[in-house]
Design brief:
With 393 residues, the chain is α+β, with helices and mostly antiparallel strands. The chain folds into two domains: 198 residues, 3-Layer(aba) Sandwich (Protein Transport Mog1p, Chain A), CATH 3.40.1000.10; 139 residues, 3-Layer(aba) Sandwich (Protein Transport Mog1p, Chain A), CATH 3.40.1000. It has seven helices and 20 strands. It has a seven-stranded antiparallel β-sheet. The protein has a seven-stranded antiparallel β-sheet with strand order 13-14-15-19-18-17-16. A three-stranded antiparallel β-sheet has the order 1-2-10. Strand 18 and strand 19 form a beta hairpin. The two termini are 24 Å apart. About 28% of the residues have low confidence.
Length: 393
């Protein structure tokens, strides 16, 4: 692999997230919000069956080299495979290549918010583009995997008749090879397609490309965020949020891996000192602290831990029926629970956000504590961070 390629993309991947509902009892605050990310669309093309991309309402000329997802751009780089050439990016393509010098063979990376409909539906969508029926029972589990952007990705390799994204093409003997990372905290799609023999011959180069894709923003280290968030780059169709400050979840996220986990943390958070009881610790600009801890077994269960947290915040415990009403969210592939606790007494003016999941014979806790205003500003970031946790491969 050679020829490093740099561009700006928002590696935020938060998708459309709602602020968590704050639990009443010891004081609460209510707010809601979210961000919408564009779907994968076609781009400026050659004869390979790609459309103009104009229909997405986000002209690439307004913001070349970046995906308008509402986030600040983060430098990305990759190694360009031998014989491949870089072609201009579009509003929906974070990386864009011509494969093996063939005008009909393309490869690109798209980063989208949310899970984009789920892994199986995206695989079946790609299968339909190359004239194949949906995956059969048990086929999904047999697909190979590869690392991309510090996370596990699913590899697909399909041969058939290329129908294109709009279903208007009819190119026989074509092949589509791709890597999909689908997650509620943000999804990445690397896709290569073209004449069968060429794409089959370039598959190893494609997989090497997937492994080489990396953020290169100044100050980035594995598991850490930059000390200062990059300046936002809004486009005409993607104006900045009302308060484009470091606490805004539109600011870029950074990938991390430590303590047996992978995650996505907001670029506005700073890595805290390592502690033996924590997988990772982050500090926010407003003075809040967020960290992950792991305890063997069920640690007494959800109710006992929620009420332990409430006691720490000077609040009375919740009855079992209120515990059952707590917000549910996916953590490490299982159902977790969230709670927000506003401090009372000696903890007045403080707030805690807590999330817990029992998985693999252990309990995983994500907590954020600090001044009430600082914690509430980070509610959306906290939820996305908790949901992004994955077991490191």
């Amino acid at each position: 692999m050679q020829n490093a390629t740099n561009l700006h993309v928002p590696l935020r991947g938060l998708g459309t997230l709602l602020l968590l509902a704050l639990v009443p009892a010891c004081g609460s605050g209510d707010s809601a919000g979210g961000f919408q990310a564009p779907r994968e669309t076609s781009s400026t093309s050659n004869g390979g069956g790609m459309g103009s991309g104009a229909g997405n309402g986000m002209p690439s000329a307004a913001n070349p080299g970046s995906i308008p997802m509402g986030g600040a751009p983060v430098d990305m780089e990759s190694d360009t495979p031998p014989g491949w050439s870089k072609v201009p990016n579009t509003s929906m393509r974070a990386l864009n290549f011509r494969v093996g010098g063939n005008e009909k063979a393309e490869c690109y990376l798209a980063l989208l918010g949310g899970d984009s409909g789920g892994l199986a539906s995206n695989i079946d969508r790609w299968r339909s583009q190359i004239g194949l029926a949906p995956l059969g029972p048990g086929e999904l589990e047999k697909l190979e995997h590869v690392q991309m952007l510090g996370r596990d990705g699913v590899v697909v390799d399909f041969a058939g008749t290329w129908k294109g994204m709009g279903g208007t093409e009819n190119n026989a003997n074509w092949r589509l090879v791709g890597v999909l990372q689908v997650d509620v905290a943000g999804s990445a799609f690397l896709k290569m397609f073209g004449p069968d023999a060429l794409i089959a011959a370039e598959k190893e180069h494609f997989l090497a490309l997937a492994k080489s894709i990396r953020p290169s923003h100044a100050g980035f280290t594995q598991g850490a965020a930059p000390t200062q968030a990059p300046a936002p780059m809004p486009t005409e169709t993607n104006p900045p949020a009302p308060a484009m400050d470091p606490n805004n979840p539109a600011v870029a996220s950074m990938a991390g891996q430590q303590g047996g986990f992978n995650w996505m943390a907001p670029g506005s958070w700073n890595k805290g000192a390592e502690k033996p009881t924590r997988a990772v610790t982050y500090q926010t600009s407003g003075g809040a602290e967020c960290y992950v801890t792991v305890i063997g077994g069920d640690a007494g269960g959800v109710g006992a831990n929620v009420n332990r947290w409430r006691d720490q915040m000077g609040c009375a415990g919740l009855p079992a029926e209120e515990i059952e009403k707590l917000e549910k969210l996916s953590i490490l592939g299982t159902e977790g629970r969230m709670v927000a606790i506003e401090g009372a007494g000696a903890k007045a003016g403080q707030e805690m956000l807590g999330a817990m999941a029992i998985v693999g014979g252990r309990s995983v806790f994500v907590k954020m504590t600090g001044p009430k205003d600082a914690v509430q500003k980070e509610a959306e970031n906290f939820k996305a961070f908790a949901q992004s946790l994955k077991e490191a491969k």
